[in-house]
């Protein structure tokens, strides 16, 4: 008889929805262990990109694995640093929810695109990538930091603290809140965060039984695209504290296409390029192309601003 898996996850409603999805795909009973002291959940004032550490939503959950208090950890893969502890293993990449970003409006508005929003419109986001992109394309919008879980952010929107907020579509769908979406941001134009909309399933590297049991969760398309995107991010030495965006596709010949973008925080400079190759190579190839175009200088200047 197989032992019951202990799954560690954050205690937010979204994390619980993600974990329940994983359990449904595993088709077995599991114990859920809620971790409530992640830095990103405790500090709800500072923008994420100003926090002095990486893994602000994943480090404590990983610690449960390292201390053998849990067998499996469920993460939003975009939150997981590209370099993980040597004792841990990324055992599965789940299939994507829809990958782009969406705009939610205060219910008194009925706009259908960012271009329709009036000057000074108060838009809430916690993402430096989104801030830089909007500043580049719609500089007259008023961008304001917003923190808290998804339900808290929507409540702030409904209370009138913001006219609109921008969120990842995957989270909205996982919580069954599709009716709150006012309009989508086109993926090929606005791109998204590396590994956005996939879940990363971790376990200990020496736990071969659990690794085998988690194989059922792995989606090859998501794995290839996420490996390429995370390699691009890793080679650029980036993370949520730098405005880096991607778009990717798996091609019929087995290669992966990826577009990458690096932006100045004020939106005044954008460097982007694209590449097609094997999924384990294409991220590095794209990084090299971005570096030739001035990406190194732009990223170094961004780091000096922190």
TrEMBL record:
Record's keyword terms, sorted: Porphyrin biosynthesis, Transferase
EC number(s) given by UniProt: 2.5.1.61
Residue span, Porphobilinogen deaminase N-terminal domain: 5-210
A molecular-function term among this protein's GO annotations: hydroxymethylbilane synthase activity
Listed GO CC annotations: cytoplasm
Domain spans labelled Porphobilinogen deaminase C-terminal: 225-289
Annotated InterPro entries: HemC (IPR000860), Porphobilin_deaminase_N (IPR022417), Porphobilinogen_deaminase_C (IPR022418)
Cofactor: dipyrromethane
A Gene Ontology biological process term: heme biosynthetic process
Similarity field: Belongs to the HMBS family.
Protein name (Swiss-Prot/TrEMBL): hydroxymethylbilane synthase
């Amino acid at each position: 008889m197989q032992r019951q898996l202990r799954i560690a996850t954050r205690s937010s409603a979204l994390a619980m929805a993600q974990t329940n999805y994983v359990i449904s795909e595993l088709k077995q009973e599991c114990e859920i262990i809620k971790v409530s002291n992640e830095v990103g959940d405790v500090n709800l004032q500072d923008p994420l990109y100003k926090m002095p550490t990486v893994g602000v939503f994943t480090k404590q959950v990983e610690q449960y694995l390292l201390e053998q208090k849990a067998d499996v950890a469920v993460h939003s893969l975009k939150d997981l640093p590209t370099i993980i502890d040597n004792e841990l293993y990324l055992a599965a990449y789940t299939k994507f929810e829809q990958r782009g970003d969406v705009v939610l409006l205060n219910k008194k508005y009925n706009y259908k695109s960012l271009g329709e929003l009036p000057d000074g419109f108060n838009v809430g986001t916690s993402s430096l990538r989104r801030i830089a992109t909007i500043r580049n394309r719609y500089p007259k919008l008023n961008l304001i930091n917003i923190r808290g879980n998804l339900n808290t952010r929507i409540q702030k929107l409904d209370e009138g603290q913001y006219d609109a907020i921008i969120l990842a579509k995957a989270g909205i769908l996982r919580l069954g809140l599709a009716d709150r979406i006012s309009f989508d941001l086109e993926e090929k134009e606005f791109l998204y965060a590396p590994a956005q909309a996939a879940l990363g399933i971790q376990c200990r590297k020496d736990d071969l039984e659990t690794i085998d049991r988690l194989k059922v969760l792995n989606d090859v398309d998501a794995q290839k695209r996420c490996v390429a995107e995370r390699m691009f991010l890793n080679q650029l030495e980036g993370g949520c504290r730098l405005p880096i965006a991607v778009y990717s596709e798996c091609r019929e010949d087995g290669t992966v296409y990826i577009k990458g973008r690096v932006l100045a925080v004020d939106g005044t400079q954008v460097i982007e390029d694209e590449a097609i190759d094997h999924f384990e190579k294409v991220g590095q190839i794209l990084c090299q192309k971005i570096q030739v175009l001035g990406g190194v200088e732009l990223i170094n200047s961004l780091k000096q601003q922190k």
